[in-house]
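Handoff note, outgoing to incoming analyst
You'll be picking up this chain. Sequence as last confirmed:
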Amino acid sequence: MNFSFDNVEYFSLLLFIPFLIFALKLHNLWKQKKQKSFADKKFREKLFPKNSNYKLKILLYSLFILFMSIALVDILAGTQKIKVNNQGTDIVFAIDVSNSMNCEDIVPSRLEKSKKIIEDILDESSGNRVGIVAFAGEAYTLLPLTRDYSSAKLFLNTLSTNTIELQGTDLGIAIKESCGLFNPNQKYGKTIILISDGEDHEANEDSGIEYANKREVNIICVGIGTQKGETVPLYENGTQIGFLTDAHGDIVVSKLQEKSLKKIAKETSGMYFSDTNSKKIIDFLNSSIKKIQQNQNSRIESTASKHYFQWFLAPALLIIFIISLTNLKNEFNI
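Most recent structure output, in case you need it:
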C-alpha cells in the first residue's frame, strides 16, 4: 500500500520533542541546584520529595507531540468512494431567431412559443444555473450562466428575429457559443437545450457535435414547427411587410427539419423531441433535466484517498487527558 501525506509541513512539530526533553532536563538541573543552595542534603530529602515519575512525564509529553504531529500531517493511503452533493445543472438555452422562426404553423409563432416554453421551464427550475444564446447565421450570448431567473425572462422578452442581423441558421456555431458558457474544468452537469426548426443552411452541425463531445456537454434538441409548414411573415417595427421569398422571388414555405436536430441529440448523448403541444414539450424537458441530474449524481461518485489522522488524534487526546487528570503539568512547575 502506497502512503502519502496531506500536510507534510506539520512534521516540523517533531522538532519540539528534543527541545522539550532538553528544556525539561535543564529545568530539573536548575531546580536541583536551587534546592542545594536552599538547604543541606539531610533537609532536602524531607523538604523536596524525589520526583519518581520524571521519565514518565517526559515520555507522555513527547508522545503527545508525536501523535498530534502525525495526526496533523494526515496520512493518506488506499482509496474510498465519495459522492458530491448535486448543486444543480448548468443549462444553456440556445434559441433559434432566424426569420423562419416567425412562421405561424405553431401559434402564435415558432419563436414566441419557444420563448414561452423556456419561461415555463424557468418557473419550475430550482438550483440550476441558466444561460441564453441566440443564433441565426451567427450566435451571441445574451445571458451568461446565472440563477437569476427574473433576468433570464427579461432577456427572453427582448428576443426577436431582428436580434441577429446575419440571417440563416448555423447550428454548429450555436453549439460552440453555448459550450463557451460552461466551466471547462467542470466534468458533469453541462446541458444545452437547443430549440430550432432545424433549417440548418450551413450544414455545420458536425463541427458543433465534435466540439460538444470534447467538452462532455449533453444537447437536448427541441424541434419547433410542423411537417406541413407554413409561409414566413416578415415584420418591420412590429408591422408585417410581406412574406419571406427565395432567390427566384417565390414565397417560401418553411417546414420542420428534424434530421440535423436528431443527429445532434443522438451523437451528444442527448435527446430529441418535437410536438405542437407546448405542455408535452415542457413535460419532456423537465423529465430530461431530472434524468440528467440523476445521472450526474451517479457519475460524480468517484474515489479519494483514505484519511488516517483519526488513528493518531485519538491517542494524542487520550494522553493530554491523562496529563490533565494526573496534574503532571503542575508537578513540572511550568
